[in-house]
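Researcher: Please translate sequence to structure tokens.
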Amino acid sequence: MSRKKRRNLSRTAEATRETRDAAVHLEWLRKERPVLNGRQRVGQSWLTDRFERQREEGCDTALTAAAEFSTLSSALTRKLSYYHAPVREADTSDRFGAVFEEHLTAQSDKLRKRLGRVHEFTDASEAHRARIAAKNLRYVAEPIVRLVGRGDEMIRALKKLQDSLGELHDVHVFAEELVAATEKAAGSRARRVSEVVLTADADESEVDRVRRARARDPGPGLLGLARLLHERGMQIFADIERDWLEDGGEALFEQVEKFAADLSERESVDSEIEPVRTDSLESPRRAERILDREVPRASDYADTSLVKSNGDEAPAQEAREDARI
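Model: Translation complete:
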């Protein structure tokens, strides 16, 4: 994939981020409302209105990005359907299983290092990088897991880790939004105090004006939400610390190492691959063929043919049409 297309995909993701975050925050606010008292619900309603506006304002940007992605997706689907392969046999080629083992191990090592940098609940950026590493490792492993019909437990563990770190990331993002909202509310509170001091109304006493101003103050609700958010974040981090930090993640890394080692040895792959699930379109024979496929070096591309990404040769017409890849 070209750098230009990568940048386009990044811009699409960024354009939809604000709307996605607002939707997540609104769902949490809805769930927490029952535990708030009357005064605190004023703040919950005030913050809900703020996120509703944020989501609505981001919708146009998100819809534009989605339309652009539709065009980009069609181009990527066509281009990623084929790849170049050498016509002649290459003596310098490595087997796909061995190359995949190296790549999987490298992604696993990256995840281990990034988890090792997460020590406290406040390590927001480190936890976010660990989440991305878990996602990348899962994306690398999933296609081969589906192909060979085993490794599902490893994928489930990676999904659980990714979800836990994602929930922690949501808390960190919400915390930043809550700080900004509290600063905004402080300005509103100052205006209400001014109204109480400066308003001259013979029909309403100062006490009544103060009471009315306090009834509209979102401050107590925002403080209550901050407390609940902190409790939620600490619980999520405690679970992550127990299940994934220090020695907690060793079971996952052992699964990854075993899965990768099994694929790196051709003889082991041939003898140990189990039948694929009956709902899979893949077959053990095809899995063996792909794992045993040679992966040429860059210098081996002098004479190449176009091959479909499922391993079949491309029809002549399709090869001509996609020869620019």
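Researcher: Any highlights?
Model: The chain has eleven helices and four strands.
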